[in-house]
C-alpha cells in the first residue's frame, strides 16, 4: 500500500491535538499526590555511582549467579473467567482465598468478579457497580474488597468507595469522597479524611456504620498516617503544625504535640515513633523522630548530604529506617546509563547511618522483609540489598517479594523467575501470555485481570 | 515554592504541553497513555521546578522524561493504574491513518520511533535530533532511514483497520 508518511504523521498529529489535556494544576497536584502515596503505602534500584560528593559508597556487589533451568508455560489454574464486556482498564487483587478482577468497559461500566484462588473456579459471578467516569482502585483487605470509582475526570472530581463482601461480591455500603481525601485501610475500619475540611471518620467494614467522627476544627488536618497494631494510633498533622495522636479505635485525641512535620514531609509511623523527612531545596534534608507515646519534643536524628532530596522512606528492619534520595545536580534524566539515586539505612531510634549505597536510577519504593531491602520502581530497575547493604541481585525487570526469602521478577515478556533473597540466584519458573506486572500474586498464585477474562496461574515453589 | 512560581509553571505548561502530547502520542500510539505520560512528566517537572525553570531548554527535559517513561512499560502501567481515574476525558477514535501508523510504529525499535516522532511530529532537524539524543548526525540519519523503511514494510503488511476507527480524510 502507498505510505505517504507526511500525510500519515499529519493525521496522527491532528489526532494527538484532539486529545484533551488536564489543567496544569492537575500535574502539580499529581506531583504532591505521588509523594504522599509513596509515604503512605509504598515501599521500594544499575549503575554508575554519581554521588561521590554526597558520600555514596561504591556498590558492593555480591556475585549474582546466572539463572538456571528454563521453564515452559506456567500451569493455568482452572479456566479463564470471561467478562461479559471487554475491558478498557483492568485491576487485579488477591487475598488468601480469592483473586479479584475489576474492570472498566468501553461505556464506563465498572464490574468485578472473583475466582477461588486455589481451584480457579468462579467464587462469585460478575457484579456491576454502575457507570462512572473511571475505575480508580481495587483493594483487598481481610475484611472487605474496596472498589474506588471516579465521578469526575480529574483530581478535583468526586469519587466513591464501594465496600463489597469478599465472600459474595455484594455491596455492603459505599461512601462518597473527593480525590483530595485520604483513605486509610486499617484493621479498625476504613478511615477517611476530608482534604477540604479535615473531617475524619472511621467506618465499620461490615455495616458501614460510623465508628467515630472527628469534626473539623479551625486548625485543619493536612496529613494523616496510621500507626497500626500494636499501637493503634492515628497521627494527624494540622495546618498550624500541631501533631494530634488519636486512638485509632475511638478517635479520641490522646495527646497534642508541638512541632509537627510539614504537610509535604515524608512520614513513616512505626513502633510508637513518627519519622519525618523534610526536604529543603538547595540545602540538606532532615530526618526527625517524634515519640508519640509521650509528651516529648521531636528531635533531628539525621541530616542528609547537601542538595539531595528524599524521594521515599520506609522501615526496613526491626530498628532500621531506609530512605531514598536523589538530586538534580548534574542528574536525571541526562545520564541515561547512570544513577543519581542513593539508598541509606539508618539505625533507629538514634539515627546513626548504618550504610549508604547507590540505588537504581529514580528508584521510588522500598520494600523490606527480614532485613533485606528491595528498591526500585524507577527507570533503573530493581535491586536487592542484604541487611549490611551489599547488593545481592539486580535486574531491569519489575520485581516484588513472593515470600520472605524469595523474590519474583515480572518482565513484560511474561517469563517469570524466582530469585533467592539469600544469594540472588534466579530460577526460571515459566511463562504467562500476559504482562505479569499488572497481575496480583500470592506465594503460589498469579492472578491476572486481562482485557477479556480473569486468569490464574500456579507459581511453583 | 514562592508566590508566582505556580503561575510560571502554568504558563510553561500551557506553552509546551500540546507539543509534548504530540510527542507522547507518537511514541506510544495510545491517547490515554500519552495523557498519562504528559501528566507524569509535568508532575516531575513541578517537583523540581525551581531548578528546571533555569534550564536553557526545560522542554527538552520533559521530552527526555517522556521518552524514558514510554520505554518503561511497567512504569507506564504503574502510573496508569495509580492515576487512571485522574486522566482527562475520553478521546475520539483515531483516524484510519493513525491506526495504521501506530501499528507500524510499534514494530520499530525505540530509537527509530523516537527519531521519527521528533522529525515528523515536532519538525526537528537531523541536527536537533542529534543534539537531543546525544547521537551523531549520521546515526540519526540512519535511524530515520531505517525507521522509514521499517514503516514501509509494516504498512505494506498492515491488516484491516478495526471497527471504531474513523476516516480522517
Separation of the first and last Cα atoms of chain A: 51 Å
Helicity level of chain A, as a percent range?
under 10%
**CATH architecture assignment name of the largest domain in chain B:** Orthogonal Bundle
- Uncertain ranges of chain A: 35-61, 63-69, 330-337
The oligomeric state of the chains shown is heterodimer
Rounded to an integer in angstroms, the radius of gyration calculated over CA atoms of chain A is 23 Å
Q: What distance lies between the first and last C-alpha atoms of chain B, to the nearest angstrom?
A: 47 Å
In percent, how helical is the residue content of chain B? over 70%
Largest interface: A-B, 61 and 68 residues
Q: Got a strand count of chain B? A: 0
> What strand order characterises the main sheet of chain A?
1-36-35-34
How many helices of chain B in DSSP terms? 9
Any overview of this molecule?
The complex is a heterodimer of chains A (461) and B (169). Helix content of chain A is 7%, strand content 48%. Chain A is built from two helices and 36 strands. Chain A is globular. In chain A, 49% of the residues are buried. Chain B has 169 residues and is mainly α. Chain B folds into two domains: 1-91, Rna Polymerase Sigma Factor, Chain: A, CATH 1.10.1740; 92-169, Orthogonal Bundle (Arc Repressor Mutant, subunit A). In chain B, 71% of the residues lie in helices and 0% in strands. Chain B contains nine helices and no strands. Chain B is globular, with a radius of gyration of 17 Å. In chain B, 44% of the residues are buried. The model of chain B is unreliable at 73-89 and 158-169 (pLDDT under 50). The interface between A and B is large, with 61 and 68 residues.
Amino acid at each position: 500500500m502507498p505510505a505517504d508518511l507526511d500525510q500519515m504523521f499529519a493525521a496522527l498529529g491532528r489526532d494527538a491535538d484532539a486529545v484533551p489535556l488536564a489543567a496544569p494544576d492537575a500535574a502539580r497536584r499529581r506531583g504532591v499526590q505521588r509523594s504522599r502515596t509513596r509515604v503512605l503505602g509504598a515501599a521500594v534500584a544499575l549503575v554508575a555511582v554519581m554521588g561521590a560528593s554526597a558520600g555514596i559508597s561504591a556498590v558492593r556487589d555480591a556475585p549474582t549467579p546466572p539463572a538456571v533451568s528454563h521453564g515452559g508455560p506456567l500451569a493455568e489454574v482452572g479456566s479463564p473467567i470471561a467478562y461479559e464486556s471487554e475491558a478498557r482498564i483492568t485491576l487485579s487483587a488477591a487475598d488468601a482465598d480469592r483473586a479479584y478482577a475489576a474492570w472498566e468497559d468501553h461505556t464506563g461500566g465498572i464490574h468485578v468478579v472473583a475466582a477461588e484462588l486455589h481451584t480457579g473456579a468462579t467464587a462469585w459471578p460478575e457484579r456491576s457497580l454502575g457507570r462512572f467516569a473511571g475505575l480508580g482502585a481495587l483493594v483487598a483487605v481481610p475484611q472487605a474488597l474496596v472498589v474506588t470509582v471516579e465521578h469526575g475526570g480529574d483530581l478535583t472530581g468526586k469519587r466513591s468507595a464501594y465496600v463489597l463482601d469478599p465472600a459474595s461480591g455484594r455491596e455492603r455500603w459505599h461512601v462518597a469522597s473527593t480525590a483530595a481525601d485520604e483513605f486509610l485501610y486499617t484493621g479498625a475500619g476504613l478511615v477517611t479524611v476530608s482534604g477540604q475540611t479535615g473531617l475524619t471518620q472511621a467506618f465499620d467494614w461490615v455495616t458501614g456504620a460510623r465508628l467515630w467522627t472527628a469534626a473539623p476544627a479551625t486548625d485543619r488536618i493536612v496529613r494523616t498516617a496510621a500507626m497500626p497494631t500494636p499501637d493503634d494510633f492515628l497521627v494527624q498533622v494540622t495546618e498550624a503544625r500541631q501533631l494530634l495522636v488519636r486512638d485509632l479505635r475511638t478517635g479520641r485525641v490522646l495527646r497534642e504535640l508541638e512541632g509537627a512535620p510539614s504537610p509535604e514531609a515524608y512520614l513513616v509511623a512505626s513502633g510508637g515513633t513518627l519519622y519525618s523527612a523534610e526536604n529543603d531545596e538547595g540545602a540538606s534534608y532532615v530526618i526527625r523522630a517524634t515519640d508519640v507515646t509521650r509528651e516529648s519534643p521531636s528531635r533531628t536524628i539525621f541530616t542528609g548530604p547537601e542538595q539531595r532530596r528524599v524521594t521515599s522512606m520506609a522501615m526496613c528492619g526491626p530498628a532500621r529506617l531506609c530512605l531514598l534520595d536523589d538530586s538534580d545536580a548534574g542528574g536525571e534524566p541526562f545520564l541515561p546509563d547512570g544513577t543519581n539515586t542513593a539508598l541509606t539505612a539508618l539505625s533507629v531510634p538514634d539515627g546513626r547511618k548504618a550504610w549508604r549505597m547507590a540505588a537504581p536510577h529514580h528508584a521510588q519504593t522500598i520494600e523490606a522483609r527480614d532485613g533485606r531491602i528491595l528498591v526500585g520502581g524507577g527507570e533503573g530497575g530493581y535491586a536487592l540489598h542484604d541487611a549490611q547493604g551489599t547488593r545481592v541481585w539486580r535486574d531491569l525487570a519489575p520485581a516484588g517479594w513472593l515470600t520472605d526469602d524469595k523474590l519474583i521478577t515480572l518482565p513484560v515478556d511474561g517469563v517469570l523467575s524466582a530469585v533467592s533473597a539469600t544469594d540472588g540466584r534466579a530460577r526460571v519458573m515459566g511463562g504467562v501470555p500476559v504482562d505479569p506486572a499488572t497481575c496480583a500474586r500470592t506465594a503460589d498464585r498469579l492472578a491476572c485481570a486481562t482485557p477479556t477474562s480473569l486468569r490464574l496461574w500456579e507459581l511453583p515453589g | 515554592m514562592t508566590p508566582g512560581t505556580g503561575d510560571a509553571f502554568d504558563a510553561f505548561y500551557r506553552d509546551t504541553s500540546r507539543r509534548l502530547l504530540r510527542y507522547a502520542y507518537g511514541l506510544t500510539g495510545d491517547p490515554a497513555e500519552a495523557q498519562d505520560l504528559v501528566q507524569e512528566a509535568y508532575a516531575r517537572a513541578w517537583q523540581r521546578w525551581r531548578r528546571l525553570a533555569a534550564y536553557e531548554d526545560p522542554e527538552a527535559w520533559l521530552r527526555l522524561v517522556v521518552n524514558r517513561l514510554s520505554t518503561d512499560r511497567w512504569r507506564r502501567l504503574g502510573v496508569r493504574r495509580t492515576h487512571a481515574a485522574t486522566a482527562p476525558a475520553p478521546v475520539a477514535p483515531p483516524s484510519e491513518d493513525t491506526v495504521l501508523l501506530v501499528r507500524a510504529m510499534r514494530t520499530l525499535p525505540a530509537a527509530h520511533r523516537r527519531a521519527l516522532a521528533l522529525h515528523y511530529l515536532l519538525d526537528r532537524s537531523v541536527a536537533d535530533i542529534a543534539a537531543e539524543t546525544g547521537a551523531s548526525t549520521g546515526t540519526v540519519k540512519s535511524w530515520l532511514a531505517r525507521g522509514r523503511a521499517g514503516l514501509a514494510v509494516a504498512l505494506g503488511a498492515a491488516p484491516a483497520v478495526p471497527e471504531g476507527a474513523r476516516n480522517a480524510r
